[in-house]
Design a protein that fits this description.
256 residues; six-stranded mixed beta sheet; disordered N terminus
């Protein structure tokens, strides 16, 4: 599959110099059977969509993969599970890794940042669901630690998420990041507050993630170009639409 090319279903093949054995894929909202407001390739079984439509979309996705995705019960937390070793079905976690071939790690998003990770020798892959809460709490730190590879030997790809011109947050979000790392201040741009006094900042979640990864020694970071809010025909966005579907970011090691 060519780098950052679109498949028939308009899925994204991430553009990053990962080893050949590392495979990754990010779905969009196009190409499925769900109807509005979940049109059309919704993979979330927890958002109110017709279960039969979700099942059909998931079957279509699985046909493009070596195995069915290892889905997580995502809670904006920091738990990471070894998808290749766990016997749990739908574990409560926001990160997954695999060291064995054909185990497909997956997270679902609709504005939160999906982060794909691999090492330079293709011995381990991982994916993290990094909304601002999980990002602040340490989901990237926990995922990298679970991979048991020095950050300098890792590559990361930042998938579609709410962009820096759309992610309005309040003082509490900015303060939470800046109190942990002062350099996070540059990821926030002041804007006019709303009538009720809320808001006041635009947050760059891509930059916040890059800063966290850099502190872990991960300098080879790619992606971070797609805004879910601004591309309504291509991506689901909870911030934009409220009731909406979910996309999947997936990574696995080929069997050979």
């Amino acid at each position: 599959m060519s780098s950052d090319a679109l498949l028939d279903e308009d899925w994204i093949v991430p553009e990053w110099p990962a080893p050949a054995r590392v495979r990754s894929l990010i779905t969009t909202r196009r190409g499925g059977v769900s109807v509005a407001p979940y049109a059309s390739f919704n993979l979330g079984a927890h958002v109110g969509d017709d279960p039969l439509a979700v099942a059909a979309n998931r079957r279509q996705l699985s046909r493009q993969l070596p195995s069915s995705p290892y889905w997580l019960n995502q809670v904006h937390g920091t738990a990471v599970v070894d998808a290749g070793a766990s016997q749990l079905r739908l574990p409560t976690a926001d990160g997954a890794l695999a060291r064995t071939g054909a185990t497909v790690c997956a997270v679902m998003t609709a504005d939160c940042l999906p982060v794909l990770l691999c090492d330079e020798t293709a011995s381990v892959v991982a994916v993290a669901h990094a909304g601002w809460r999980g990002l602040h709490a340490g989901i990237l730190e926990n995922t990298v630690a679970a991979m048991r590879v020095p950050g300098s030997r890792l590559l990361a790809y930042l998938g579609p998420a709410i962009g820096p011109r759309a992610f309005e947050v309040g003082d509490e979000v900015r303060a939470a990041f800046v109190e942990v790392h002062a350099e996070a201040a540059v990821a926030f741009t002041a804007i006019a507050r709303k009538v009720d006094g809320s808001g006041g900042w635009l947050a760059d979640i891509f930059l916040l993630a890059r800063q966290r990864l850099a502190r872990l020694g991960v300098e080879a970071v790619f992606g971070g170009r797609h805004c879910t809010v601004g591309q309504a025909s291509r991506f689901f966005s909870f911030r934009r639409d409220g009731v909406t579907g979910r996309m999947a970011s997936l990574i696995w090691l080929s069997a050979a």
